């Protein structure tokens, strides 16, 4: 077939002009443009002010000021960008203010000014990720203890600190003068010898301390705390008169079975609905010390599992939860050892009347892995789903990505081969 030739008139005919993408976006209402810019790092959003007169002031309506410098090594440039934005920012409120860069205490003056700016703008979420590894050089988080500052903290709802030091007086001031503060998180930070928080004036709902050090005890009492997470050095833990506490996440390293972790959480045992226990060594459990947890619906056990030792004794923790609906087991292994032995079973028929989901993370196909799955199959009246995640938590430095992928694929094959023949009717096997 011959291609039709275009006549001269057709050749000269112009295609209809399309409006450029920039023009199309520029015609949108300001609130839509602000929504778009709020998804960008604030330094990039501010640059749009140079596009045209239409864009000059739009970025100032962005209320999430995220100064993410994780990919930048130019500290002076980063500081200049922060000051450049806050000096020309005239919106009355800031919803979220985030500093993310490698700063130490030598930059305290700048950081103090940025925090002051955020508080003056009635910030709701304050996040500081400074990422320094030397605690003695961490930035010390501090607040002026004036009445004006107390007023400025009326709007704080969330505080997130990483690589930041904090003293007891500052923590107390923040908690007592921030009536809407519901979440306080600290990571990799140095604080003080003890945390003693309580009283009806405290409105904190979620408290998280991970990788922090410097203190020996935590005492929380007499307020409506909903969730508490602690992971770090071994401490003395006291939880009293916390009737709203529903979620608790602690570890053996943190409290230690030798210190009877169950006696330390017994005062809130009636209220708990979610319990996470990190038992890295997976040894030393005193079954007789386990307390009843009548309302726990989700139990997660995190255990080290380098060898193929039987882990069935830890199902005693699940048996202490008569309302259990989800039983999650996370197995951390390096180079797992497989042994040839018979599968052991626990004879406790229908001990779990409400257990619907079993999740095993780090399933490798060892007998000890299989035993945990068999336990749930044998002893659950309402089991609906078994989730197998072969995620490899190996820490060997000589493991390549290909090594990880091969081990995980082998684990998937083992899980399918071992568990498919054992599934009761109506129980789904999901291998991720």
TrEMBL record:
CDD domains: F-box_AtFBL13-like
Protein name: F-box domain-containing protein
Compositional bias ranges of the Basic and acidic residues kind: 7-17
Protein origin, superkingdom: Eukaryota
Domain F-box: 28-67
Region (Disordered): 1-23
Organism of this sequence: Ambrosia artemisiifolia (Common ragweed)
SMART domains documented for this protein: FBOX
């Amino acid at each position: 077939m011959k291609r039709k030739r275009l006549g001269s008139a057709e050749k000269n005919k112009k295609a209809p002009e399309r409006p450029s993408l920039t023009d199309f976006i520029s015609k949108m209402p300001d609130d839509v443009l602000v929504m778009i810019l709020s998804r960008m790092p604030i330094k990039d959003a501010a640059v749009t002010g140079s596009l045209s007169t239409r864009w000059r002031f739009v970025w100032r309506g962005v209320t999430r000021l995220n100064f993410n410098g994780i990919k930048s090594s130019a500290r002076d440039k980063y500081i200049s960008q922060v000051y450049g934005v806050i000096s020309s920012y005239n919106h009355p409120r800031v919803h979220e203010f985030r500093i993310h860069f490698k700063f130490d205490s030598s930059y305290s003056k700048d950081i103090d000014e940025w925090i002051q700016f955020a508080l003056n703008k009635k910030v709701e979420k304050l996040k500081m990720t400074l990422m320094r590894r030397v605690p003695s050089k961490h930035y010390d988080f501090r607040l002026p203890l004036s009445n004006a500052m107390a007023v400025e903290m009326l709007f704080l709802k969330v505080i997130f600190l990483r690589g930041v030091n904090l003293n007891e007086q500052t923590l107390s001031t923040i908690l007592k003068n921030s009536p809407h503060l519901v979440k306080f998180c600290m990571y990799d930070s140095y604080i003080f010898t003890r945390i003693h928080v309580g009283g009806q004036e405290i409105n904190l709902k979620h408290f998280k301390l991970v990788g922090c050090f410097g203190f020996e005890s935590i005492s929380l009492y007499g307020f409506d705390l909903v969730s508490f997470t602690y992971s770090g050095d071994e401490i003395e833990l006291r939880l009293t008169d916390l009737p709203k506490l529903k979620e608790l996440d602690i570890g053996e390293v943190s409290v230690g079975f030798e210190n009877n972790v169950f006696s330390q959480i017994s005062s809130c045992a009636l209220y708990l609905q979610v319990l996470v226990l990190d038992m890295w060594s997976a040894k030393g459990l005193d079954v007789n010390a386990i307390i009843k947890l009548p309302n726990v619906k989700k139990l997660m056990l995190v255990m080290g599992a380098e060898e193929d030792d039987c882990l069935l004794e830890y199902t005693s923790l699940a048996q202490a939860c008569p309302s259990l609906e989800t039983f999650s087991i996370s197995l951390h292994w390096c180079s797992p050892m497989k042994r040839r032995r018979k599968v052991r079973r626990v004879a406790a028929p229908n001990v779990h009347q409400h257990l619907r989901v079993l999740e095993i993370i780090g399933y490798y196909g060892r007998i000890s892995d299989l035993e945990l799955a068999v336990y749930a199959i044998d002893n659950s009246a309402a089991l609906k789903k078994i989730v197998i995640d072969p995620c490899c938590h190996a820490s060997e430095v000589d493991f390549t990505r290909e090594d990880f992928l091969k081990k995980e694929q082998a684990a998937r094959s083992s899980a399918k081969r071992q568990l498919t023949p054992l599934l009761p009717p109506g129980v789904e096997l999901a291998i991720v």
